Each structure stands twice: as structure tokens, then as C-alpha cells.
Amino acid sequence: MSQARNHGGDPSPTRLFGHRSAGPLLPVLIVCVVVLVDLAGGAGMTWLPLLVAGPALAATTNGPRGVLCVGLLAAVVGATLGARDGAPGPELAAVLAALAAVTLASALAGALRSRREQVLADVRSVAEAAQHALLKPVPATVGPFEVAVRYSAAAAEARIGGDLYALVPTPYGVRLIVGDVRGKGLPAVGTAALVVGVFREAAYDEPDLLAVVDRIERSLARNLGADDFVTAVVAGHPRPGELEVVNCGHAPPLLVRAPGDVVPVESPHPAPPLGLRALTDQRPDLQVLPFADGDQLLLYTDGVIEARDRRREFYPLAEGLSRHLGDEPARTLDSLHEELLAHVGGRLHDDAALLLIRKPTSDAPDVAQPALEGLSLGEQAA
After folding, report:
1. 314 falls in which pLDDT band (50, 70, 90)?
2. What does R_g of the chain's alpha carbons equal in angstroms?
3. Over 70: is that where the pLDDT of 137 sits?
4. Of the four, 56, 202, 221, 311, which is 20 to 30 A from 324 by CA?
5. Would you call 104 exposed, middle or buried from its count of C-beta atoms within 10 A (0-12, 13-18, 19+)?
6. Cα torsion through 133, 138, 139, 142, rounded to 10
7. Helices 317-324 and 329-344: angle between axes, nearest 10 degrees
8. 83 exposed, middle or buried (CB, 10 Å; 0-12, 13-18, 19+)?
9. What Å distances lie between residue 212 and 15, 26, 175, 198, 245, CA to CA?
10. pLDDT digits (tens, 9 = 90+) for 41-86
């Protein structure tokens, strides 16, 4: 969810029987070239059949109206040149008939393309709404933390995928989750929505962070298939100077101490991903980490560390974080995200999420701020 903030504005689709503001410039240019060649060479009927390229090309960039205009122009030009060159009537009629047929077929193709563009625009709009419902925008400050999130979906047109994140201020301190659903597509999105929904409710209700994880595990056990699972890191800030971390089969978060040292938070007792606890006796452990002013914690998904360049080398996240580390999480993630895209050549092949929190240096007391029950994070920020 860039929050991935990796999507630019899309051009408005061509509506049925409309055409783009740029007009059929290239198709008209092709018609003009045919005219010039015919006038220069005096070749009679030799070049006139090429006029059909005008309306055929117009169908790729214009609506039916633009195609018909180009076809009419080509027909008038063809008839004029044919009469000028003294072309036999049957041959000229055949050329004009072929031109009319291509124009009508191209107009239909342009109409169908316009419909598909409109459907795609509607799907994008729905996906955008789904993204904001599932992965609510995170304000720059939550409780005592400065926060930044960047999300990129591998399916750029969908703008949403199987990676998930959430950050909730609760009576027990700020709590957050970053996870990765096995698989892709709509099933993964549905599982991600389930995990985020259960987490938001349990994080507010349960005093114990392990109880929050247990609630998610029980919900997934009832709803997931036998081969489905979710890797996740759940963290909490129950009291000043401490972070609690529960890792369920996920990549280790990166802890940044105030001097700039980047240390992976490895779990001493690895636990299975969420949804697979019934297959093993292992249960997740609660790690308690010191978290002082100036410290930062980066949580991420596999799409970041498994991103490869042309030489098939993985992206070195810890090194990248050290290079771009600063006192502003948003700026740090902007630079990190740009470097990640440059590493893979501009397009990720898997969903990727980054969530960075920082405890700013302040003389103000570190007090957990309770959530405003019933409001989304975006509404709380407002």
C-alpha cells in the first residue's frame, strides 16, 4: 500500500465515440505522406491502397469518431488522387471499398478499446478504494513515534497485493504488524484483510501481545486452507524505552541504534508462520528490546530482500538502510524505495512493504496514546 506511493496519475480513458485531445495526428500524417508520394511519383494506383493504414492506426489511439474522420479523409484523398491519375473505375472502387471496410472495422476496434479502458479505469478506482480500506493511510506521527510506510504491489494495475501492515495506538501502547500472505491475487488480498481486521481488534482488546498473535492464529486456523499461511512480525511499545517483538516465520526486523548501527532482530526460537501452529509444537516467543530516543525499527516483507538485479543478486537491505538513514523516516524510505526500484530495473516482481518507526529525541514524556475507538487511522490523523 506505496503508500507505496509508487503510482502516478493515469490518463483519462477514451470514452465511447470520443477521441483524445491530441487528435489523430499520426494517422493524418500517414495519409499526407501517401499523398506526397503519389504526387511526386505520379504512380497512379500504386500507393493509394496504403491509405488504409491511416484509419487502422487511428484505432490504436482514438475513439470511433477519430477513426471515422481519418477514414473519411483517406476516402476523399483516394478518390481525388484516383481521378487525377486517371485510375480505372473498377480498381478505384475496389480501393475505396477496402478503405471503407477497414475504417468500419477500425472504428469498432476503437470502440471496444475505449470500453476496455473505461472498465480498467473503474477497476483501478475500486482497487484504490480497497487499498485504503485494507491498508489505511498511516499518519506521520503515531503515539511517541515518527512513522513512514512505502508499499509497492507487483501487479501495478491492481495496486494491491498480499503484503499487509497496520499500526494502531491502543491503551497498551502503539502496536503494529507487517506480514506477507502466501500466494498472490484475490485470495491473498482476502487473507490479508482477515489478518489486518483481527489484528486491529485484538490489539485494542488484549493486554498481552502474545494474546494478540494467538487471536490471529485462531482466526486463520478456521479460515485458511491446509497449504496457506502468513508470515508476520507483530511489535508493541508497552512502556517507555522498550519494544516487544513476536516473529512468526518472517524476515527479521532491522533495529537501528541512535549512532546508526543496523542490527537484525533475530528470534532465538524461530516460530512457524501464522496458520501453521497446528503442525508443530513450537509457539512464538516474546522478545523485549531496549528502544531509546533516536532508535529506529524497520519492518519489511520478502519482496524487498528477494528483489534481484540483472545479475540475479539480492538487494542488500541492511546496507541500503545504512546509506540512506536519517532523522526523517519518510525521507529515509523514499531514498530506500528509489534505490530498490533502481536495483530491479524499475519494476518489482513481488509485493514489497516497508514500515519504519523512529523514537524522536525529546524531553517530553513517552506516553502511549490510546486509540480513538471507532475511527480509522486516517480519521484520527485528521
Report:
1. very high
2. 29
3. yes
4. 311
5. middle
6. 120
7. 130
8. exposed
9. 49, 61, 10, 9, 12
10. 655 556 777 788 888 888 888 888 888 888 888 888 878 877 777 7
Q: Which of 138, 120, 110 is nearest to 10 (CA)?
A: 120
**Amino acid letter, residue 338:** E
Residues composing the chain? 382
Q: Angle, nearest 10°, between helix axes 25-41 and 64-85? A: 10
- Is the torsion defined by CA of 281, 211, 149, 359 positive or negative? negative
State the pTM of this model: 0.68
Which CA distances in Å does 37 have to 29, 70, 277?
A: 12, 18, 75
Taking CA atoms, 292 is separated from 236, 266, 271, 289, 364, in Å, by 14, 19, 27, 10, 13
Q: Which amino acid is at 33?
A: V
Residue type, 285: D
Strand order in the sheet with 352-358: 141-142, 145-152, 352-358, 296-300, 254-256, 262-264
CB 71 within 8 A of CB 102: yes
